[in-house]
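Run folding on both entries below.
>entry_1
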Amino acid sequence: MQTLDIANPFGAPVYYRERVSSTMDEARILAAAGAAGGTVITADFQEAGRGRTRGRAWMADPGKNLSLTIILRYPDLQSIPRAITLRTGLALSLAVEDFAPALAGMFMVKWPNDLMLGPMPGAACGVEAALKTETAFKAAGILTEADGGTVFIGIGVNVAQTEFPRDLRARATSIHLALQTLTGAEPPPMESPKARFRLLERILVRLRGELEPAGDAGDWRRRLEERLYLLGRDVQFVPGAADSDAVIEGRILGIGPEGELRILPRGETEVQSFITGELRIP
C-alpha cells in the first residue's frame, strides 16, 4: 500500500493500491486497525465495487476513473452530520466543476446518492436522441455506510472512461465524454494518476467544507436544491426497498432538514417526506 503525497484537509493519510476488492472493504480494514478520521483509500480498480442496493455493482475500467473511500470518525451516531450522503453529493458536484470548469453548472445531485450530468447539446455516449430531450447521465455515485460513529463514504467518479457496457450506454457518461461533447474536441488526457489525484484533492477540500458545522455549510439545503435533479418535476417514486411494488407518482418539492425527499403526490394536498426509496422518471 502506497501513501500518496497529496493535500488532505482532514489531516490524515491518503493511501493508494492498484487493485482491491473494494475501497469500502479496505477502509473497514484500516478503521479496524485504528486509522484516524479523514484517512482515504483509493484504487485504480475495484474487483467487487458495489452500489447502494444489493446486487448492483459499480462498473469502471481499470485506471480510468476515480474510486475512493474516506473514513470519518464521530463520537456517536447522533454526532454524524445530518444528510451526510446528500452533502457529499453537493461537495462532489462542486469538486468536479473545480476540476473541469467548462462543465460548471451542469452537475446535478440525484437523491439520494448519484451525480448526474446534463442535459447537454450533442451526443455523449452515442445517445443523441436522448440528449435532445431532458435526459441526464450518471457520472458518479456515492455509498455511505456507518458503524457506530465511524462513517465510510465511498465515491466513484467516471473520469476518463469512453466506453460503457451496452446496458449502461444510455444512462452513464464521464467527464472526458462530457468535455468532448461540449467542446467538440479531444480534452486533455485524464487517465494519468496525476489528473485523477488532482480531482481527489478537490473532492477532499469540498467535502471538508460541506461537512463543517459553520459557514456556508449551514446553508446546504438551499444550495443543494439549486442543483437537485428533477426538482419541480413529476416522478415515480418507490418508497423503501428498490424492488418494492408500491409506486407513488408526484412532484419533487425539495429536501427536508434531515435529507428526506419531499414529494407532493398527484391529487393530494399534503407533502410527504421519504428517508429511503428510489426515483424513477415516468
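>entry_2
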Amino acid sequence: MNSKLFKTFSLLLGGMIVFTACDDDPAPVHNGDVVGTWNLSGLTGTYDRKVVTGTGIANSADSYDLVATWDDAAGYAAALTSYGMPTDEAFIIGATNQTLAKWKAGENAPGFPRTNVLDAAALAGSGIVMKGVFDDAPGKGEKATYTITGTYPSIQLNTETCTPYQTIPQINDRGNYTLTFDATDAAGTIALSPATDLDQVLPPFPDGTFTVDGDAGKLTIDFVDRDAHSTLYSQVKAAWNEADDRVITGLSQLPVNTVGGFFTSPLDPNAGDLAASAYIYQTALASWGGYLTWYAYNVIAETSVKAADVKNPLTDLDGDGSITPVDMVIYMHYDNLAGGGGESAFGIPYTMLVDSSNPAAPAAVNDSATDFALAGILTGSGGKMKFTILDGLCMPADETIEFKSQWTAAE
C-alpha cells in the first residue's frame, strides 16, 4: 500500500472517529434520575379538616348541630288531634328533636383527621392509576416540565344531603417543577407550579421533598396540600377565593351499634355500617336500659317543666347539687305515695312512669323491652323511640392534606 495514501486515510479515519464520538456524547442530565416516566405504586394521604365560621362563608353557623327527628313525631301529633286534643305537629317535632352532636369553629370536622394508606394492590383495587412524566431542566436548579395523567382519589360532597363520598376522577395535569438536590444527588426538595391555563388537580407547593434511586427504579415525592386552607394558602398561592377554594364537609349518617341498634361512634368496637335511622343510647339513661324511651323522654321533659314552675319549682331532692331526672323520679314517687294523680306534660300518669311499690326505693319504669307504637297512646304504653337524621349537616372547613407518594420507573 502507498504509505502516503495510508497516512492520509488514517488521518481521515481518526478525524471521523473523533467527530463521531463528539456527536454521540449525551447532553448533561440536570435533574438526574428523576427524569423519566414513573408509575404510582403507593400513596398515603392524611386529610385534616377544621371547622370554621365567619361572615361570607357558605353554611356558616355559630354551632353546627346534628339533629335527629323522632320517627313518630308527626304521627303522634295527628293521633292526639284525632282524639280531640288538637296538637301542633311542628311543636311535637321541635320538642322531641334530639341533638346527637355539636361542632364549633376550630374543632375537627366529623371523620377527620383521617389517613388512607394505599399500596400497589390497594391502588389497583381502587381504580387509581397515575403516570408521571418528568422532563429534564435546561440547567441545574431551573424549571422543568411535568405531566401527570390517570385517575386519583378525591373526597367530594353531595351538597343536597351533606354526605361526603370518595370518587376516582381523571387527572390530566401539567406544569413546571424545580429540584434542589442535597449533597448525595439522590434526595432534596421539589417545588411544583401547575399550569394556570387549565384546571389542575395537584396543588402548588414550594417545599416538597423527594428521594430517587435510579438503580432500583424508585422515586418518592412528599408534599402538603394547603390551597384549601384560608390562612395557609398564602404559602402556596397569591389570593384566596372563598367561592372556589372553600371546602364544605358534611355528615348525614352515623355508625350504628350492631348489638343495640343505636347511634354510636367509629370508636365503638361494635360500630357497624353508617345509617340515618337508629335508637339513641346514653349511660345517663341507665334506668331505661340506656335507651331514650317514651317513658324516659316524659321524665326528662317533665324535669324541665317542673324546674321552670314559678309556683312550685322542682328542687334538688337527691342533694347532688343539680336538678336532674333523678329528682323528677323522686318527685313523682312522692306524688304517687300521696295519691296526687300527677301526669306528665304528654299525659302519662306518674304511676306509669315510676314504680312506687317500695316506699323507700322509687324506681323509674324501664320500658325499653319494646318499641314505641302509636297504637299504645291511649293506654300510655312506652317503648324505645327511633330517630332519623332527616337533614344532613354541612360545615365549612379549612383543609390540609399531607401526601406521601411512591413511584416505580416505567419499563
